[in-house]
Design goal:
transmembrane, membrane, DUF2909 domain-containing protein, about 80% helix, mainly alpha, about 60 residues, DUF2909
Length: about 60
């Protein structure tokens, strides 16, 4: 489970970096920045739901 969360976090940061690259390259004129940011938001929500479901089904516990 830990590896899956780390993979999601890396993908989220990569999407954020690509959005920054698109913003700098397109000067805000294109739609690629908005698409990359919306993908990042979707992956963040998916990660949150995955963590909530994992806690509910006992795959992770609430203690450190």
């Amino acid at each position: 489970m830990r590896v899956l969360v780390i993979v999601f976090l890396v993908l989220i940061v990569a999407s954020l970096a690509s959005a920054l690259g698109f913003l700098l390259k397109d000067r805000g004129a294109g739609q690629r920045t908005a698409m990359a940011l919306s993908i990042r938001v979707g992956m963040s929500l998916l990660l949150f739901l995955l963590l909530m479901a994992s806690y509910h089904f006992g795959l992770i516990n609430g203690r450190l």
